[in-house]
């Protein structure tokens, strides 16, 4: 089911990213002769990876037909969040055909959560008429050994350490599976159909319960020597700051992760410094980062200062990364990104002021517009990339 | 003079990095059939890129002969420093055959400096018996547009902004030329024959007049979206720190660059806080970063505290980069690296304490052992990489 060589892989990627094309267009794009390309396309058709479409095909004129990714292609994206399971089925061009979301609790352990996911998969199979999946991609909210397809010491996920998520799902689904952390798949989603579509080198920064960064270099996710690249939540931003769960002091997450926001919001509600948050605490018995976002949007001065302070510290870390990595774009996503433009304005202000002009000249900093769908599309794209590479290229040797 | 295809390119890289090999060994390594490989090797021989060596060749037995990079292959490495011109000629395996160093002053402008370099090239031609160069690599101590082969707004180099260094040298030398900043070529040198030889993802940190970082990802120099990646000297380490030449406050270089060390050493000498530096100032009328190094090595407490403070700030920046980039190795080089183990110990202490265990688990931090030669070997390696890629691969489209 894999392409035999790099020409076949190139055809698959062109059709996936650009949609159906005539054979003539493919000849131009792939750079093979018409007759050699015809051989490769026939092989792809024989193996069910592409098929013919459009009026030319119905007249039986194979040479003038339009080629597309096989209509039966189905990818499964599984985005495992701290409190939700989010699944989608896409076609071969990563268009979402069906989607289902349920609440979950990762503390139930991997077997229970995966069992719940498999029941959701069955619903999606029926809903989208999918007998079998071409491949599945999985995102996990914690450190992952991409090579081994398993979580490694994920915080707040008892029982998941070194659980063979990839092997378990590959056996249950009878298709190739890849597992990565949630931030990396969100970055891939943005690259496939979001704001990063035309960028080769960019950063996707997720600000949610934790703060992480997906790194895309030369159009591929960069995972680092041991797979932990992008872990920016524990960068020190103030040696005199609060103690972090990791044991160091003044980490970015200790100021602006979901837990830090909840802690500060609760204190502000109790002390009455934020009337808006105090009301919220009285009404519902708790305050959340979403309440901070709402309060800031409503003009509550203390909530606004919380957002500005947090955004300034995020900007401080990103300014250093911009000088170091020189990305073409920074995308901000994750739950806290819902705070929107107040957050963005402050991050921009710090980064553009503190980084070197050479690096920031044309570099946009933008909010993700894909929301939850980034992870699902990215998970599908990850496994599609894996399948669209021929055996000689590095993507088949996950590191 | 370029290889025709990726098989030829693979043969060239194998011979360059591993030395001469028999045809049988090449069949195993390249993965072509014996007869197909013979065709590619014959083409490489016809075009003067490889030749036969060893006893098998002298008996005329081509099929059992040993193949090597053509003995006539000659690369030129030009390392332009702030006050020195350093040139070397290497063979096809990057072994230095001849080397010449002269003092220069970049403020004389590019025409005068390049003219001086070309006279040095003529000396080297005679010394090494080199009629023509296969290619030349050039390192420049400032920001470079790699794609255009020219410096961009380099500080302290009047007249060099957008001077066509690559085109000028390519015309004068009649060979392919590539130009990059000095830190990137030093990183390549370490990868070719230094401590980074077996690493695919590592950082080379140069601490000299400025502080910069060469980034190697998946065995290639990563230059970023606009070519300025690795500029870590202007990362803010203390918002209340001294004003930097770049206009911001508290940049790493404002604490520990050559200029900052000279400034602090002079103050310490004048105030008498450092008896060693005061002696030095009296004797020679000036103090330099080298004097700080010597004073620290001699146990002068104030000089030792200067080194520790600077190293701590370097470590602080590197700790964040380790979490972000997850390198397999960090190499410390450049003039200030001559301070040696006191510097290294403090950097290690901060990085290992502040970065996450997953990222630092097996990551060594080491001093460069190549010294000045890193840049020369790296410059030769850069142009060799360019030539060893076939037309279909990204390296021929410098970005």
TrEMBL record, chains A, B:
InterPro entries: ATPase_NBD, ROK, ROK_cs, WH-like_DNA-bd_sf, WH_DNA-bd_sf. It comes from the Bacteria. GO terms for molecular function: kinase activity. Keywords: Kinase, Transferase. PANTHER family: GLUCOKINASE, ROK (REPRESSOR, ORF, KINASE) FAMILY. Belongs to the ROK (NagC/XylR) family. This is Sugar kinase. It comes from Phytohabitans houttuyneae.
């Amino acid at each position: 089911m894999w392409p035999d060589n790099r020409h076949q892989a190139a055809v698959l990627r062109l059709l996936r990213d650009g949609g159906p094309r005539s054979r003539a267009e493919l000849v131009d794009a792939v750079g093979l002769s018409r007759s050699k390309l015809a051989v490769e396309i026939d092989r792809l058709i024989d193996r069910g990876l592409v098929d013919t479409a459009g009026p030319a095909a119905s007249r039986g004129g194979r040479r003038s037909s339009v080629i597309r990714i096989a209509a039966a292609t189905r990818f499964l994206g599984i985005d495992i969040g701290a409190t939700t399971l989010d699944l989608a089925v896409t076609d071969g061009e990563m268009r979402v055909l069906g989607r289902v979301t349920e609440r979950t609790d990762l503390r139930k352990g991997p077997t229970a959560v995966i069992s719940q996911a498999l029941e959701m998969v069955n619903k999606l199979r029926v809903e989208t008429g999918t007998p079998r999946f071409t491949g599945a991609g999985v995102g996990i909210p914690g450190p992952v050994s991409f090579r081994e397809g398993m979580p490694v010491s994920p915080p707040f996920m008892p029982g998941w350490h070194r659980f063979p998520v990839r092997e378990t799902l590959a056996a249950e689904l009878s298709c190739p599976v890849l597992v990565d952390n949630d931030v990396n798949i969100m970055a891939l989603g943005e690259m496939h159909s979001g704001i990063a579509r035309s960028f080769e080198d960019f950063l996707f920064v997720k600000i949610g319960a934790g703060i992480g960064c997906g790194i895309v270099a030369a159009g591929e996710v960069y995972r680092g020597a041991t797979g932990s690249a992008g872990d920016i939540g524990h960068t020190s931003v103030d040696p005199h700051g609060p103690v972090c769960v990791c044991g160091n002091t003044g980490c970015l997450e200790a100021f602006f992760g979901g837990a830090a926001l909840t802690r500060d919001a609760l204190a502000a509600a109790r002390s009455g410094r934020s009337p808006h948050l105090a009301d919220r605490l009285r009404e519902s018995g708790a305050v959340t980062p979403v309440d901070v976002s709402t309060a800031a949007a409503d003009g509550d001065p203390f909530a606004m200062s919380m957002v500005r302070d947090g955004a300034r510290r995020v900007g401080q870390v990103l300014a250093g990364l911009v000088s170091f990595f020189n990305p073409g774009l920074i995308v901000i996503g994750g739950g806290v990104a819902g705070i929107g433009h107040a957050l963005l304005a402050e991050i921009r202000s710090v980064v553009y002021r503190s980084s070197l002009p050479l690096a920031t000249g044309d570099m946009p900093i933008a909010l993700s517009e894909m929301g939850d769908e980034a992870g699902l599309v990215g998970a599908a794209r990850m496994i599609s990339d894996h399948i669209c590479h021929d055996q000689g290229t590095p993507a088949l040797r996950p590191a």
